[in-house]
Amino acid sequence: MHIHILGICGTFMGGIAAIAKELGHQVTGSDQNVYPPMSTQLEKLGISLTQGWGPEQFEPVPDVVIIGNALSRGNQAVEYVLSRKIPYTSGPEWLKNNLLQNRWVLAVAGTHGKTTTTSMLTWILSDAGFEPGYLIGGVPGNLELSATAGVDPFFIIEADEYDTAFFDKRSKFIHYLPNTLIFNNLEFDHADIFDDLDAIKRQFHHMIRTVPANGLILNNSDDANVTDTLSLGCWTETQSVAVLGNGAWQVNLLPNTLGNKDGSSFEVLFNKQVLGTVNWDMTGQHNVYNGVMAIAAARHAGIDVKVAIQALNTFKTPKRRMEQIYSQHDITIYDDFAHHPTAIATTLAGLRNKVGSNRIIAVLEPRSNTMKMGIHKDTLANSWQEADKVFLCQSKEQTWHLPEDNKLIISDDVEQIVRQLVDISAPNDHIVIMSNGGFDGIHVKLADAINGKFNKPA
């Protein structure tokens, strides 16, 4: 079958393309911005790519078109498909009908931590000797690909709450048929498609309705919004995970060399029995939740907890999840995907517990649609309390702005931010760049500029 994918260079749609190719289909696709690394990965798989939305991409006419959720009515390619009645579907619906119906699906849902937790769970099953299928919305550290059909019964998927397509406004995860569901946390986000928190809860509850009675839902009992959503009705066995309160799964945080409980080491308890100790490179309370959720889900799939813990001890963070991208001249730079106040706060808190009194400099681009709308502007300033200095990159066209102070510097010029960062950079600094986009290449520009500063001849 010839499958043509509109919006193929997105992480999710690129994963769909890889899986479809692996299943033996002829796959082509197009996007507005066809560029590496996704374009390179797809071309290596033998997938032909078209730049833009012109009609020439539909010759020869494909058997079905998969339309990504970034495309809307009025798009030239969408209008071409509709007017000529070429069969079309969404990525989640195609995945459901062609792969998930006959698999043991382990789905990872929540406002935060989906990519990291999905990567953890996939690595645990892989390290245990299985070859699970998976689709991860990022580039995993321990695995070669971000998506594969796999050969075993298990399929692990990042269960995103964003809408499915212009013709299906339900959340993507409605299509995934989970046997094992991780419900990790829930906050208001995606203000461009959800009116309020209750609207998001309804979508998550629709997902809960799809989990069979013989499945398992792992829920964060420390999160009131998760508890509220489950109270709307649940027909499946649940197991609670708690770091702060009481749950079937609990942890005992252990101190690091500075005496801080930064999440880099913790005991895992199930029904109050200690089953093992995680010692890994991750930090932050949020990653403790992610790790225990992955261990608990793997146990439901038949993986011994000790085996799961052993795998997590060798887990490598996915790209752009507190990924250390530079470490020279006693200065460390991290690339992080955080773009919600809670994610920013927990990430910086974990780093503070790890580095002690060393200076932390946060560099933030409020790029998500929710951020651009100013939904989180009242809580944003509190999110960087653990940082010593903050650089906020905001365009002049943005409708809201925060006042500068002794900690906060605001600019609309990435080059200027780099110059200011280089001027103040000193040994033992930890610089965290936070954005869900490319941030105008600031990562490479900053690393090069710091090298230039410290490599100057005496």
UniProtKB/TrEMBL annotation:
EC number(s) per entry: 6.3.2.45
Top-level EC class as recorded in UniProt: ligase
UniProt catalytic activity: UDP-N-acetyl-alpha-D-muramate + L-alanyl-gamma-D-glutamyl-meso-2,6-diaminopimelate + ATP = UDP-N-acetyl-alpha-D-muramoyl-L-alanyl-gamma-D-glutamyl-meso-2,6-diaminopimelate + ADP + phosphate + H(+)
Signal peptide feature range: none
Superkingdom of source: Bacteria
GO terms assigned for molecular function: ATP binding; UDP-N-acetylmuramate-L-alanyl-gamma-D-glutamyl-meso-2,6-diaminoheptanedioate ligase activity
Residue ranges of every copy of the Mur ligase N-terminal catalytic domain listed in the record: 2-98
Residue ranges annotated for the Mur ligase C-terminal domain, each copy included: 320-437
Domain Mur ligase central: 108-298
Listed PANTHER family: UDP-N-ACETYLMURAMATE--L-ALANINE LIGASE-RELATED, UDP-N-ACETYLMURAMATE--L-ALANYL-GAMMA-D-GLUTAMYL-MESO-2,6-DIAMINOHEPTANDIOATE LIGASE
This protein's name: UDP-N-acetylmuramate--L-alanyl-gamma-D-glutamyl-meso-2,6-diaminoheptandioate ligase
Encoding gene (name): mpl
